[in-house]
Amino acid sequence: MQRFVPAAYVRFACVCVTRIMETGCMIDSPFDACWDRLERADVHRSALARIWNGYLDDEPFDVSLIHEGEGVHILRVWQTAPIPAGFALEFGEWLYNLRACLDYIIWATCAHVTGQMPPPDEGKLQFPIYENKSAWDNNLYRLKHLRRHHRQMLLQMQPFNSDSEANYRCVINRLARIDRHRRLTITSGYIAEREPIVEVPSGCHVALQWGQRLLVDGEAEMARLTVSPWTDDMTIRINPRSGIDPEVNEWAASKFWRRIPFSHRMTKIQDLVAVDIAVYEYDCRGTSRRSDLLPQDYVDACDERGRPSPIRREPPPDVEWTAPAALGLSTRDRFEGQGFPSGPAFPDRS
To answer: Which of 153, 73, 59, 63 has the alpha carbon at shortest distance from 106?
Structure first.
């Protein structure tokens, strides 16, 4: 009987080679991972649109006009079917990729500044997003390996130095923390368009009052209409002419963001994160795949400052071989890969 190397050894060797090649690509351009995360976020954004459009195909919202007496009517919007759980899951993945992208920016910048891969103290690195100055001060040690102008740039963009409700990085951080550490975000519907037309008896006047736009627990009292003069033998009809967008309840609390359609918000935030990547990538490398996003005065300032030293690649560690051990016997079928996904390997004769 011939001796055969067990197939498991062949498969393990192939996996190791693949991982080494992947790691090498990451070392060549650490900012590439930032762009990869951003592209992945866009995949989830598109998936959200598909889920919502599919949900709307079943006409999951209804309206009713409820007479409360004395000519006062409430236009109420009802949710007749729950939003698919996949919507909140995809939204959480979108948040995860954006928050990770921001952290990758700091990691890649630190690698360029120190010239080391991986950068020193990498376990402490994160993109700082703080809502008060004391939190910034207490965590400044995490940025000690960056250049001074990097720390100044990061300080200027902190939520406590701006309108935190409008700060897109603050939004990403807040919502990502909810999704990552507590629960799925609460998804609902938001009445984005409202142009009702009312049919009333001749000679009547209608006073319109706007109410809720966010559906809470599946309903919203969108408007109140008071018809006068009113008698109980009258009837009115209404075409609500309303359009409903998806919404995340925790995000709808922001007066700044809820005025922007949900899909536009997501696209806008992705565009802004792309600028963040380009800003630090150009500063470190003198080039960026999205240099077109940068103002010329910033480009000139980066060029004048000069670039950090090239990243030094540490040599791979020496192989630590185990003590020799004799191979056991196997079979031809096992060698040919029966019951195992890989086949035989042969020496490289080139």
So the answer is: 153
Continuous segment of H or E residues that includes residue 156: helix 148-156
3-state helix/strand/coil string of 84-102:
CHHHHHHHHHHHHHHHHHH
* Distance of alpha carbon 254 from alpha carbon 172, whole angstroms: 13
CA dihedral 31, 43, 84, 272 (to 10 degrees): 60
Distance CA 47, CA 246 (A): 13
Position 12 pLDDT exceeds 70: no
pLDDT tier at 308 (50, 70, 90 boundaries)? confident
> What's the maximum distance between 2 C-alpha atoms anywhere in the chain?
105
Task: For residue 142, give the DSSP letter.
Answer: G
Q: What is the pTM of this model?
A: 0.80
- Residue 119 to residue 106: CA distance in whole angstroms: 10
